[in-house]
Specification:
The chain contains 15 helices and two strands. With 367 residues, the chain is an all-alpha fold. The chain has one domain. The chain has a two-stranded antiparallel sheet with strand order 1-2. Strand 1 and strand 2 form a beta hairpin. Helix 8 packs across helix 15. The longest helix is centred in the middle third of the chain and has 33 residues. The N terminus is likely disordered.
Length: 367
């Protein structure tokens, strides 16, 4: 299989990256985009008016209590494992200095900056992107996130989720199984979408090994590599989701791992689609999802002749994660598809970088 290492990290690209000089650029761009995205997140739909409500919700999740949104008290069992941000928030509140609302906003801003910084290093080190192309990838990520801010309430897991997806891709491309395993366990404390790490591994390695199997002459020696990679992928996903269930039990008790431990939103999404068909408008949630995905798809299509198996496999993984998210998430909320848009942007940038690198090589070739 042609992996990211084959095409992303040749010697010429490694020599161009001087991390000591690049860190200020990375931080500057991350802060700029962080200010833009966090400001949009907090001000769209008058979200700042509900900040106190969101702070209390985070603290209630950490302590396993029902919380109140819009005057309605509810208990979201599937959110009970999402304790990473609430735990940091609670720690900061106990430190004092700022108000609870001030700490909430500062943590949101910090996680947004960290997300962009991690994405920058992914694009530079694993996609081999030049500075301008990496900046364009960050710009698209900022554009995509602003599209997802459609509800009245901000969700603390959004920025860390995108950051973890970027780390999953980098670890999978480098075949760092242990790193991927550890990070996905940690990420389960942010959101159960950490299980998608196994999906990335399966499509990057397991799928290709299955394709290599000679179905006319099957033998155990030939099946072992396929079983090994599929087993790795399954182990990552199972352990990640198992960690999420364990966290739900620890922070929510037995009732958090009952029949309602994982919401299935097929009926809700069906009604949303039915309403859209009855009242079609380009300003609907479907229009926003198209705005989120179509420009990236067009960017990928414009460089389609440079596609390699790793690109196609990551795009397949993005499609599968989008389909799974549609079953367990709310389709009318574009943030449901954050795990799918991250690999799409990465592939688009990787293709652009590969296209430029190959064109430069051809132009320098003699004759």
């Amino acid at each position: 299989m042609e992996t990211g290492t084959d095409f992303v990290r040749p010697v010429i690209i490694e020599k161009r990256i001087i991390w000591k000089k690049e860190l200020p650029i990375c931080l500057l761009l991350s802060i700029i985009f962080g200010v833009y995205v966090t400001s949009a997140s907090e001000k769209m739909n008058n979200r700042q008016d509900y900040r106190s409500e969101m702070v209390q919700m985070e603290r209630d999740i950490l302590h396993g209590r029902p919380f109140t949104i819009g005057g309605i008290t509810i208990r979201m069992v599937p959110w009970q494992n999402r304790v990473m941000f609430p735990a940091l928030l609670e720690l900061c509140i106990r430190l004092g200095i700022f108000t609870a609302n001030g700490w909430y906003l500062l943590l949101r801003f910090s996680t947004c900056i960290l997300m962009f910084a991690v994405f920058w290093f992914l694009l530079r080190a694993d996609a081999g992107a030049e500075l301008k192309i990496a900046g364009a990838g960050m710009l698209y990520l900022a554009y995509g996130f602003v599209i997802t801010f459609v509800s009245r309430y901000s969700m603390s897991f959004e920025f860390p989720e995108a950051m973890f997806m970027a780390i999953f891709i980098a670890a999978a491309l480098r075949r760092k199984f242990l790193l991927l395993f550890i990070v996905c366990i940690v990420a389960s404390a942010n959101r159960e979408s950490s299980a998608f790490a196994g999906v990335y591994w399966f499509f990057l390695y397991g799928l290709d090994e299955l394709r290599k199997v000679n179905r006319r002459k099957i033998n155990l020696a030939g099946l072992f590599p396929a079983f090994r990679e599929v087993g790795y992928a399954a182990l990552i996903s199972i352990c990640s989701y198992g960690s999420a269930l364990l966290l739900r039990y620890v922070f929510g008790g037995k009732q958090a791992i009952g029949s309602r431990t994982q919401a299935i939103t097929v009926l809700v999404n069906y009604n949303a689609v039915k309403d859209l068909i009855r009242h079609p408008t380009p300003l609907s949630w479907l229009g926003l999802i198209l705005c989120l995905t179509v420009p990236c798809a067009m960017w990928i299509y414009s460089n389609r002749e440079y596609l390699i198996p790793a690109h196609r496999n990551l795009l397949l993984a993005a499609c599968v994660t989008a389909a799974i998210s549609s079953v367990f998430g709310s389709v009318p909320e574009p943030r449901t598809y954050i795990p799918a848009i991250i690999p799409m942007i990465f592939v688009a940038v990787w293709l652009e970088a590969r296209c430029n690198a190959l064109r430069s090589t051809r132009s320098l070739a003699p004759g």
